[in-house]
């Protein structure tokens, strides 16, 4: 044996021995998991629930003293390959992870940047997205239940100018520019009670991912934001159920193991508004129906509105079947429904006339998902779904002996294949293909005089996408680069959409974040007349047609609806140390292809068909301080400048967007002590733009003459809310929670919209829509 070979063997033995000693040293540093759990129980005042076999022989590295509870649980999850599920901020359930290798890699790629963002259950990730977990959700002012779409409005840069979940403005965009997904299925309806309550049951929703920018390439549509709601997807063979009610609705849900390989998840909710008249229902009714045909008929001396009834319900079901350890099938079903009926009675020529007007709104969906884990690094997911939306109204005008039927229906069918390749903890490749067919129809049927219009458009699209995620060894740098290629055959349009997400941690406590995206969508909502669909839900879905001629009653009419295209870039700095978060993010966004009819103008442009764009520049600032796990306070400020440009309106000059809220401030705090949670908050924003009639010459030839569009503003908006919940055990297996909240404590009469009408005497009348007044609510829930 040569000297070189002998020397190499000696060096190799030395390094192997040294590595063994280091590994042994590391192993000696670890402690039994049961020991660490006892320490955590005393430190964070929590209780752990587990099977003895689950933690048997498990060891973990001792935790640092400055970690929050969420950070400690995440560390143990990675260190032990166990699941730590925090329930009600007090109880932690420890379970064995399924498909451990895949979950471990995914968790590393989605590193948490900020835990307890605003409150428990809200987390900011290093790809720029924000995740909401309703199961561990703490409390927010005015909310006693984790309403998904109300919670989103607490995030900087997100608000609703009219206080509804069906009109959420994310960085100045309209609500139809948000993509809502329920278990991967696109939704076209977001609210119950015509926007005051989220239509999605939070108690079966596992988590919600929110993207304001830097969207993953697998998402199409949604030029303003992505709101991706996901139900639990793992079978844990544990029964879980709950019942609850508040002054608006009652609900129940159950997670039922059928066998070791199958599980059924069910939930249902129904309003009690047609059974009990509560103060909360009265306030909601006053807010929603104040400017509708329903309220007009009720206040008209010629009519007596009687036997009016309103109710809503939703039903969801998910069936889980693990065929093998590598093959999984999931079936999804959802049905959302709102129904309003009212009678109009009048005496004409000594004759009683009574007719029934009604409005119904529904979104149903069904889908199937198949997941295959080929090995520890490669998996594929295939999904097919059908989503159907229908808005149907029948309106009778007794005086004019006229009946109007209106219907807006959306049929959306989609098939997609998603591929994930994760060779190691630092690298991931994601790609796939999606086919969609969307058909939208609009019906108008009038009697006296007889008129009928039915228009249906269909668009089929193909999309391929790919992206790669890179994570540095110490998780300080995260880079996601991707793109999406869309082809719309009918429009003969190909659109390329690059996506970027970059995150860099430096000086230990600072993080730089750069996000960018190109996006597009072919669906949008427009308003033909403000009193369409009884004036309650007057928006209707339409498809892009790129100025196609539409034939109605042998007359060619052009309804220009382009494909919406957006570009957005943002950069932010985040500082996070000792439970203090300081965040500032600036952004610029441009959206092309908007139509005047999609913006809800109620001025000189109300009946104009025009194509334009809007540009918005802004900054979101957040200061969030947490004191231990008891108190969390935050103040956020958003500034934005949002302007329209229509080449053939306002002489082509820019003017303020209808959603141009220049300044918005939120100040709030939460207090959590054991089973008691309390929240108090204040919301203020500058008044939205409005257009006033000309002071010198308000009327000319039967038309209102207006000043410059959106040249004035409504009064500033101010609202204070509070809420409190308390949890307690009513048996060894049942836990109850009671809650109470007050929306708009100060009963501030906020004007959220103003417009003008002309009566028979050519007099201009001012119409003001008010926000919700002081609105109390109470709830009671039991979880088994």
From TrEMBL:
Superkingdom, taxonomy of origin: Bacteria
UniProt feature coiled coil, ranges: none
InterPro entries named in the record: Beta-barrel_TonB_sf, FecR_C, Plug_dom, Plug_dom_sf, Secretin/TonB_short_N
Record localization: Cell outer membrane
Family annotation (Pfam families): FecR_C, Plug
Main location: membrane
Protein name: TonB-dependent receptor plug domain-containing protein
Organism: Thalassobellus suaedae
